[in-house]
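Hi there,

I know you've been waiting on this one. I reran it after we fixed the sequence typo, so this is the corrected version. Both the input and the resulting structure follow.
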Amino acid sequence: MHPYQAKICDISSLQAGMRLASPVYDFNGKMLLSQGVVLSAKHISLLQNLLIMQVTIWEDRSPNLPEENTANEPEFPYIEEAFAEPEPVLDLSPRKEPITSSAPFQMLWDAFWSQSPQSELSMHYRRLLEETKHIFSSARLHSRLEKELLNTLAGDILVLTASPVQVLRCLHLHPRNSPYIFHHTLHVALLSALIGKQCDFSEERLQALTLSALLHDVGKLRISLEVLGKQQPLSEDEKEKVRLHSLLGFRFLQKQKEYDLPVLMGVLQHHERLDGSGYPLHTKSDKTHVFAKIIAIADVYDAMTSQKSYGTQHSAFIALDEIQSSILSGQLDTHCGQAFLKLMQNHLAGEWLELTDGRFAQLLFWELTGTHSLVVQTPEKEVLDLQGNHLVRPLRFIPPLYFTDGNTH
């Protein structure tokens, strides 16, 4: 067994002497600390001041190793030197036996994102995430958002959406080393922008939609961290407080007098439902802005498919089922919903899945009119029609790098 294993560590749990397993980047994508740096008290203090929430450290499996001399360690070396300690060897040869749903896919993800061209995409995604963290962490501290930074971030998000397949891989496959709210904010903005493009929005309207999606949960800055990070089910009183976040966000932005009405309406109404069953104002279809209709779909999809401190993480296809059902029941907008489902149908084909029976398969076809109509193909070229099969279902997406027969796109 290799003497080291990578472990995500909250900033509050860092101790001097820990060694970084991955580089730490600032919100501009610039490296603050390189992989392999042994953290000092000054490093930890600076990371806290820069609002870095989590880092990845090497956890030593072997006791009694000699301590490193860190006296001459630079505080913030802007270098990309490789960690001299050998990393665990990853066998990428084709596997015949299935692996269970608890298999360690983290190593596969790391290998996938470290290779070109995914490495450049990964850097872009991490930079966007760090910018999102910086903007909203600063807003919690200073009660103000920097609109210029938000507009720049929205523009950078639109650049990434030029490749929908890569965006969806980021959502489904990229390691999540930051609190849920930051990933969720970025993902909802990315999905909303993709839907807007599918609806043929102009560039100006896409920019405004992406900005509104970035701000959709800004009202949660007014909710205590204790409630937002609670590991157990929320009480009814706590649920009511959380449901107020869209109204709180609207009022927070309205006071700044810098945001156009469509942006504000996307924030206020993203939890409204077209039949009046949503919140906070129970508005119906004719009173709900199109930005809110789009953000609502993106919000549901990412919330259902994401890892959270509490609640179930569902497969993408269960989330798509839920969205399709909500369209048919009149809760979500038909035009925007169909645009989203068409987007997913076009760009999920060819991705690799782990099935609930432990097998792997490549998605060949997903029927738009019924998400249970799935056709997949195993590495052994066996074609499986999963329509109506409630015993074998898609569990999750897995990195295409795992397969070496060229069946990736």
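Quick highlight: DSSP finds 14 helices and ten strands in the chain.

Best,
R. S.
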